[in-house]
Specification:
single chain; Rossmann fold; Four Helix Bundle (Hemerythrin (Met), subunit A); six-stranded mixed sheet; 13 strands; globular
Length: 444
C-alpha cells in the first residue's frame, strides 16, 4: 500500500508505533455511511494538541462544522467573537485537562455567557466512557479512542440537534444485564464473584455495580480472607485489589496459582488505582488474567466480566435496569462530583449518605497519617497513605483531592521532599473543602 511503519522506543518508558498511509480524499463520503448535518455549528477545541484537534476537525468539518483550536481557556472569548453570529457554538475540552479543570472552565464560561449558553463536550481518557449526555448542554465522551459516531452525535446534540438514533446514554444499554442469581445459586453454579478489597467505600460501590449487572458477590477484606474463601469452592471469578494488608493481591494470586497445580485456572482480575509505570506488568507476572483501573467504570466492568465469566443459565427474566439519574446537575460542587454515585445508587440518600459518612471518617484518619508521615519524612508512608486516600476519593467523585493524592504518591515514590511539602500545603484545605461538601450532602 506504499506506507511506512515507524517505532520509537525508550528503555523503561515504552514504545510508540506509527503507521503512515496515504489515501485519496472522497468527495462523496463513505458509501453506505449516513451523515449528520453539522452546518452552522462552530466547534471550539480547548487543548494544546494539534494532532488531536486535526483528528476532530477532519471528522466534523466533513459534515459541515467549522472548527477552531483554542490554545487555552483564556483565548475562548476572543475566538467566540470571530465565529459567525448566528451559528450554534460547541466547546470541546481536551482530556489533557483534569476533570476538575474542565469543570472550572465550564463554570467560568457559563457565568460569562449568561443568556447565550454554549454546548460543552468533555473528553475523557477512560476507555470505557461512552457518550453520556448529562443534560442538553453537557456531554462526556472518550478520546481513547475517538468513536466517530459518538463524536458527531455529541456535537450535534450539544448544538440542540439530533444525534444518531443508536448512540444513546451509556446506562440505557446496561439494561441487557445478565439474569441475577442469589449468592447461593451463583456459588452452586460456579458463577459467584469474590471481591478482595480492604476499602469499605470501594467494597460497597463494587457490590452495587455487580448487583446492577445482575451478579452476586461476596467480600473479603484482604488476601488471607480471600484465599480461605476460595479454598471452600464455588467462586467463579476473583476481583482483587493489589494493595491490601496481611496479604496483597499479587501474593494472593501467586498462592492461588500454586494451589491449582495445573487445574483450570480461576479468572483473576486486578482492580487497581496504581497508575505507576509497570503496574500492569506486575499484575500479569503474578498470574492475573487482566486488570481494571479504579474507580471502576460499569461498562468496562461489564465487558471484562463477559470476557472471563461464562454467562449464568437463565431461569427467569428479571428487571436489572439501572435506576435513572434524576434531574440533578452534573456538578454538585467543584470539589465533589456525585454524578456517578447518584447514578449508581439511584439518587437515594439513604443508600449514598452512609457511604459518604464512612468516607469522611476513614479519610480523616488517613489524612492525619499522611501528615504525620510527611513531618517524619517517611516517604513510604506518604506513598501508602496517598494511594489509599486517592482510591476512595476518586470513587466518591472528589477528583481534586484524588489528583492531589496522585501527585503526593508520585512525590513519595521519587523521594522528592520539596514536592511532598508543596502538596501537603494543599492537602488540608482541599480535604476540608471535600468534607464540607460531604456534610452539605448528608445533612440536607
Amino acid at each position: 500500500m506504499g506506507g511506512s511503519i515507524f517505532v520509537e522506543s525508550t528503555l523503561g518508558e515504552g514504545a510508540t508505533f506509527s503507521l503512515d498511509l496515504t489515501f485519496e480524499s472522497s468527495e462523496s463520503g463513505v458509501a453506505g455511511r449516513d451523515q449528520l448535518d453539522l452546518a452552522d455549528i462552530d466547534v471550539l477545541f480547548i487543548g494544546p494538541s494539534e494532532e488531536a484537534f486535526g483528528a476532530i476537525a477532519r471528522s466534523l468539518e466533513f459534515s459541515g462544522a467549522v472548527c477552531h483550536q483554542v490554545g487555552d481557556a483564556r483565548q475562548l472569548q476572543v475566538m467566540l467573537g470571530q465565529c459567525a453570529a448566528g451559528s450554534a457554538k460547541v466547546v470541546i475540552v481536551s482530556e489533557s485537562y483534569a476533570r476538575s479543570e474542565q469543570e472550572s472552565i465550564w463554570r467560568q464560561e457559563e457565568a460569562v455567557q449568561g443568556q447565550r449558553p454554549l454546548g460543552w463536550v468533555f473528553l475523557s481518557t477512560n476507555r470505557g466512557q461512552r457518550l453520556r449526555t448529562i443534560d442538553d448542554r453537557l456531554a462526556l465522551i472518550s478520546s481513547s479512542p475517538f468513536r466517530w459516531r459518538e463524536l458527531m452525535s455529541a456535537v450535534s446534540l450539544m448544538a440542540g440537534r439530533e444525534g444518531f438514533a443508536e448512540v444513546g446514554d451509556e446506562r440505557s444499554e446496561l439494561q441487557e444485564a445478565w439474569v441475577p442469581m442469589t449468592a447461593a445459586e451463583a456459588a452452586d453454579a460456579g458463577f459467584l464473584i469474590l471481591v478482595a478489597e480492604d476499602n469499605v467505600i470501594n467494597q460497597q460501590v463494587i457490590r452495587r455495580q455487580l448487583n446492577t449487572l445482575g451478579l452476586a458477590c461476596e467480600l473479603a477484606a484482604d488476601g488471607v480472607e480471600a484465599l480461605d474463601r476460595i479454598r471452600r469452592g464455588g467462586i467463579g471469578l476473583l476481583l482483587t485489589d493489589c494493595d491490601m494488608p496481611n496479604m496483597d493481591g499479587y501474593e494472593l494470586t501467586r498462592r492461588i496459582r500454586q494451589e491449582e497445580q495445573g487445574r483450570a485456572g480461576l479468572p483473576i482480575i486486578a482492580i487497581t488505582a496504581n497508575a505507576m509505570e509497570g503496574a500492569a506488568e506486575a499484575c500479569f507476572e503474578a498470574g492475573m488474567n487482566d486488570y481494571l483501573s479504579k474507580p471502576l467504570e460499569i461498562r468496562a466492568l461489564q465487558t471484562m466480566l463477559k470476557s472471563h465469566l461464562p454467562s449464568p443459565r437463565v431461569s427467569e427474566v428479571n428487571d436489572t435496569s439501572v435506576q435513572p439519574e434524576g434531574d440533578g446537575p452534573l456538578l454538585s460542587s467543584a470539589v465533589l462530583d456525585l454524578t456517578e454515585m447518584n447514578a449508581l445508587f439511584g439518587d437515594d440518600p439513604e443508600l449514598l449518605n452512609p457511604l459518604l459518612d464512612e468516607f469522611a471518617e476513614s479519610a480523616s484518619v488517613t489524612v492525619s497519617e499522611i501528615q504525620a508521615a510527611s513531618r517524619d519524612t517517611n516517604f513510604d508512608a506518604v506513598l501508602s497513605g496517598a494511594h489509599k486516600l486517592k482510591s476512595s476519593a476518586r470513587t466518591i467523585g472528589a477528583h481534586q483531592l484524588a489528583d492531589l493524592c496522585l501527585a503526593l504518591e508520585r512525590a513519595g515514590k521519587e523521594r522528592d521532599l520539596a514536592s511532598v511539602q508543596a502538596d501537603m500545603d494543599q492537602l488540608e484545605s482541599t480535604f476540608t473543602a471535600v468534607i464540607e461538601a460531604v456534610n452539605q450532602q448528608t445533612k440536607t
